[in-house]
Amino acid sequence: MLICAAAAAVLIALGFGKELFKSKGFSLDRTDIGKMFLVVFCVLAAQYLVQFVLGFLNPKNHRARTVVTLISNLVRYAAILAILVGVLTLLGVNVPTILAGIGVVALIVGFAAESLITDIVTGFFILMDNQYNVGDIIEVGGFRGTVTQIGIRTTSLTDTGGNVKIVNNSDMKNILNRSDNSSKAVADFSIPYGADLAALEQKIPALTEEIYAENKEIFKSAPKYLGVQALGDSAVTLRFIAEVGESDIYAGARALNRALLLGFRKLGVECPFPQVDVHSR
Question: pLDDT tens digit string along 183-224?
């Protein structure tokens, strides 16, 4: 409403000529003001009704969620345009005449808003090429997050800490979409040099199967033992990986670390702490 009023005031103040108005005498009475408020109320009511209905839609398919958010954005922009045209019409402005005479202005604005046009065009091709959808986990510019909204101009990403990053569509380059593939949760577990590694490796398959049975909601299969990752100063580091969904990559690593610590303790192997051996003569 404020935007429409400001636009109308600017048009009147600049005096675009009598041809812009349907009548030479311009006046604004209470009836006109009432009609303006009625137009604004009806358009906003329709907008909120559509968005209210869209709010109840929660499709699981990422593509469908993208369409819902895009429609919500388009409805908001359409409501602003409808209010602007309606208010200008009630003010007596000949809107078709303005639209016919803004070719030069549109050209100037087009050059000034080149980035805006680029964002909109890029967003269109992102949707058409199905590069990513709402709910996908992507990496762009070093930021990893879940796509929460795809708008006409921008894309919103939210990371695991709740931080929201808004990126212009034209800046969505070199995207890594991690939602379509499984990910690997990695865990390194250290054992003392004094442990019998050969005997311990024979017990690891049973341990990983037990870990998988207790964490099927996170792991897609039993964790795999890859072997000795490093020979540290005080311990031998063993590496394990587990196949998880991209959204569970951090939770999977934490669960695997916990399960390995408890599992090796049952086998009588404690995770060592840094030690220093002193030899005297």
Answer: 889 999 999 998 999 999 999 999 999 999 999 999 999 999
Partners of 137 in the beta sheet? 146
The confidence score (pLDDT) of residue 103 equals 58
Residue 95 has pLDDT above 70, yes or no: no
- Pairing status of strand 154-158 against strand 143-150: antiparallel
Q: Distance between CA 163 and CA 161 in Å, rounded?
A: 6
DSSP string covering 169-212, please? GGG--S-EE-SSS-EEEEEEEEE-TTS-HHHHHHHHHHHHHHHH
Length of the chain measured in residues = 281
Residue with tokens 């590694």: 197
pLDDT (tens digit, 9 = 90+) per residue, 139-181? 888 898 989 888 888 899 998 888 999 999 988 888 888 776 6
Q: Which CATH class is domain 183-266?
A: alpha beta
Mapping DSSP to helix (H, G, I), strand (E, B) and coil, where does residue 275 land?
Answer: coil
Task: Give 131-177's CATH code, choosing from 1.25.40.10, 2.40.37.10, 2.30.30.60, 3.40.190.290.
Answer: 2.30.30.60
Domain residue limits, the chain: 2-101, 131-177, 183-266
Do 241 and 225 meet the contact criterion of CB atoms below 8 Å apart? no
